[in-house]
């Protein structure tokens, strides 16, 4: 299933999840925004990982859950 989703589609879905469900309303994000700088704390990260699992049907291995990989939508899309 994951092979059929383009990188651009992954980014679009991630941006949608972040702006509508995770970050404070009105927070502007794009694929290069520093997510930690706009409020992605540990609780928000857990919520995001749950949404990723639900939307993409995949779980990100713990070894990939680094601050770097979770720093931007671009980096996050690469590990999904």
Helical content band: 40-55%
Beta-strand percentage range: under 5%
- Briefly note the structural class of the backbone: mainly alpha
Q: Can you tell me the CATH architecture? A: Orthogonal Bundle
Oligomer: single chain
Q: What form results from the Cα inertia axes?
A: globular
Global Rg: 11 Å
CATH topology: Non-ribosomal Peptide Synthetase Peptidyl Carrier Protein, Chain A
The total beta strand count reads: 0
- What is the arithmetic mean of pLDDT? 94
Count of runs of 4 or more consecutive helical residues: 3
Q: Kindly, what is the distance between the CA atoms of the first and last residues, rounded to a whole number of angstroms?
A: 11 Å
What is the CATH level 1 assignment? Mainly Alpha
- Domain module count: 1
**Runs with pLDDT <50, length 5+?**
none
Order of helices and strands: HHH
The CATH superfamily label reads: ACP-like
Let me know the largest β-sheet. Answer: none
């Amino acid at each position: 299933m994951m092979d059929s989703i383009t990188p651009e589609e992954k980014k679009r879905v991630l941006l949608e999840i972040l702006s509508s469900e995770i970050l404070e309303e009105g927070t502007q994000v794009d694929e290069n925004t520093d997510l930690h700088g706009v409020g992605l704390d540990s609780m928000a990260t857990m919520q995001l990982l749950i949404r990723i699992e639900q939307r993409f049907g995949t779980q990100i291995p713990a070894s990939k859950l680094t601050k770097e990989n979770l720093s931007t939508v671009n980096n996050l899309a690469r590990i999904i």
